Amino acid sequence: MLVQRVVTALILLPLLLALVWYAPTPWLYAVLALVGMLMAWEWTGLMSWAERGRRWAYTAVCGLLLALAWFVPGRESLLPWLLGVAVLWWLFAISLFPRFPDNIGKQQTSGLPMALLGLLLTVSTLLALAALHAMGPLKLLFFLFIVFAADTGAYLAGRNFGKRKLAPNISPGKTVEGAVGGLLLTAAWAMTAGLYVFAPSGNQVWLLLLLTVVVAAISIVGDLTESMFKRIAGIKDSGNILPGHGGILDRVDSILAGAPVMVLGLYLTGL
Question: Residue 163's pLDDT is what?
């Protein structure tokens, strides 16, 4: 399993970096839209939809919405509102954790609200990633490495110091100490790479630090939320398209939560 994870990462990471660095934003979004359709297919698994026709229809609707979202007039002015709705959902998701699994079941995650949620999160995230890329490839890479740093810091700190469970009913392996370790590593990322990428001055330095840590924290919420939905659906992974890693959603759950917060934060802070 570990060898598969490493090999998959060694193949995908250079492709991702090349796409971010060399592709024009419309091309990047086109590739992301294809990935988004795979995410939509896996989302139907979280909804416990077994009928293939139903799953294909949902995937097609997601693809259509992704195309419309890109070509709709006034996309730039509408994007902050869409991102705001997505951020509100992630803040609400936090309230679901303490009472899980008594507060939510398959009946609540298999109907129209869950289907609409999947479309909202997919479209808002991919538009946010494209918006970051349009600001400059380095800003998109900075965000992606916030998520990587949060995950790496949480793993290392949790493995060495973890004692108190963060959300035992959702993800027993995650600890409070691990989460703190992830946040500290992302803070260090903000104060090193962030200073180069954004060149902040005065109070903007502290705004950058705050935004980075908030994005890292909400990325943990994204991870826990997907784990919660998988537990309800009774599945271990969202898919098997990535050897050793599971599905697309298993790899991007933190990005789903973090990207809207990152872009909305940049709009609000002027960084």
Answer: 87
Which amino acid is residue 128, in one-letter code?
A: A
Question: Is the C-alpha dihedral spanning 206, 209, 213, 219 positive or negative?
Answer: positive
Show the tokens assigned to 210: 């705050």
Which residues are 171's β-sheet partners?
167
Whether pLDDT at 15 is above 60: yes
Element (H, E) at 172: strand 171-175
Q: Are 253 and 223 in contact (CB under 8 A)?
A: yes
Measured distance CA(113)–CA(139) in Å, rounded: 33
The β-bridge partners of 165 are 175
- The amino acid occupying position 56 is W
Residue 209, both tokens = 């630090």
- Counting the structural domains of the chain, the total is 1
pLDDT of res. 64? 97
**246 has which bridge partners?**
242
**CA separation for the pair 147, 216 (Å, rounded):** 6
Residue 37: domain span: 2-269
